[in-house]
Amino acid sequence: MNDCIVIIPTYNEIENIESIIRSVLSQHKPFHILIVDDNSPDRTADKVKLLQTEFKGRLFLENREKKSGLGTAYVHGFRWALDNGYDFVFEMDADFSHNPNDLEKLYDACHFGNADLAIGSRYVTGVNVVNWPLNRVLMSYFASVYVRLITGMKIHDATAGFICYKREVLENIGLNKIRFVGYAFQIEMKYRTFCKDFNIVEVPIIFTDRTKGESKMSNSIIVEAVFGVISLRLKKLVNSL
């Protein structure tokens, strides 16, 4: 059985879904894909079902009844991946902001290197972001600075969503306790990994903003991240994380 599964949450990604699936499955390493779709009105899931006939045994689909947030979609996917025996579990966006060609770099960092969690990092070697407006770049960059100050994690890209986890990480960080859904979810996953003394490694990538479809970013997600970091740190201080 293949040891790698790429989890891609979707909501109205009909413009991107076929291209991202074909790109991931054309990599030299034979990755598998799990699409977690939140009942997309644009029928993203129907396109995935059609492609499943072409990629039998490599492309999987989990349908959820409604849009319930990025964090819950990933946790759903993590549980599915663990139940189905995968050793390396990836997070990846559907919109090509994460380059499928970088998947093997993250895999190598975990399989051949000493990483338990490998981050596709936009900021570990400077600012490697394409097509984002300056205010978005500054918000993302300084969010990571803020996270480092509050949590003590030595991570340059704390809100990154291009990740490879070793199975052992997901089995031991308490998926049942994950509470955040947006930027704060990405921070929470890294912080729980950090608090369990797993090794986190940043792998430099170039992040390119989506050219098709609409961003899912909202003010509520940003607010969650700002106050969520403080909440995580306080929980750690009182040993309730």
UniProtKB/TrEMBL annotation:
A Pfam family it matches: Glycos_transf_2
GO molecular function, one term: dolichyl-phosphate beta-D-mannosyltransferase activity
Any GO BP annotation: glycolipid biosynthetic process
Keywords recorded for this protein, A-Z: Glycosyltransferase, Transferase
SUPFAM superfamilies named among the record's database cross-references: Nucleotide-diphospho-sugar transferases
InterPro entries according to UniProt: DPM1-like, Glyco_trans_2-like, Nucleotide-diphossugar_trans
Domain Glycosyltransferase 2-like: 6-173
Gene3D superfamilies per the UniProt record, alphabetical: Spore Coat Polysaccharide Biosynthesis Protein SpsA, Chain A
One Gene Ontology term, aspect cellular component: membrane
Origin superkingdom: Bacteria
Family stated for the protein in its record: Belongs to the glycosyltransferase 2 family.
The protein's name: Dolichol-phosphate mannosyltransferase
Gene source species: Flavobacterium frigoris (strain PS1)
